[in-house]
Amino acid sequence: MYDIATRKHTLDLLADGRSMNSVSKETGISRAAIRAWKSRLEPLPRLLPNALPCAAPTDKASYAYLLGLYLGDGCISPHPRGGHHLRIACADAWPGLIELCRVAIKAVRPDDKVYLLQKQGCVAVTSYGRHWTCMFPQHGPGKKHERRIVLEGWQQEIVDAHPWEFLRGLIHSDGCRVTNWTVRNGKRYEYPRYFFTNKSDDIRKLCTDTLTKVGVQWTILARGSDPFNVSVARKGSVALMDAHIGPKY
Questions:
Q1: Among 96, 130, 136, 164, which is disulfide-ready with 83 (CB 3.0 to 4.6 Å)?
Q2: Where residue 50 falls among pLDDT bands split at 50, 70, 90?
Q3: Class assignment of domain 165-244?
Q4: How does pLDDT run across 108-117, given as a tens digit for each residue?
């Protein structure tokens, strides 16, 4: 059995002009099953833009954190026999982050198992389940920065209620806290600074919109000609970030 989100995603790929063979190879779903869904006389039920997923998260603070991790370093891939794997890549240098990610997944989906897959330089915190595409409707073909990333209404409500958890997930995935320095009048000055770096304009905007809502001042710094970096350097704003996020460990 495949959930509605899986079937809808598969049919959306066909609607985009993909061949049945290529969709079958990407999703792991047999062509016979896809053909049967395509030929149904009645349309599949649709999730309205603001509707809750089929398995709404009960621990919303943990979900906000996990959403930030997913938008930064997460992906969802289909399992050949149905369901999907959620994978969050966490660098070996941050064992605390690996554990925080594992705990968040268990809090969001208590009945789904979580396991760690060691890869070169990182650990893929992985969970198999039949509802990950419902929990993260931003899933889709291609890289995140090459397609639109927009939160559903129910996701935005969670982020609005738990903005610091969401920001913490973003910073823990694609951000860092560093010590910058400068020289003034021959004297060296050091100061802390937060960065969030992501190629997706949409994901960076989710970050900056949320920073603004919690009173953090930010600027955009370009990497070459590309505005990939969100910077937080004002003393008061860094203090706020330290109080609610802090460095990775």
A1: 130
A2: very low
A3: alpha beta
A4: 999 889 999 9
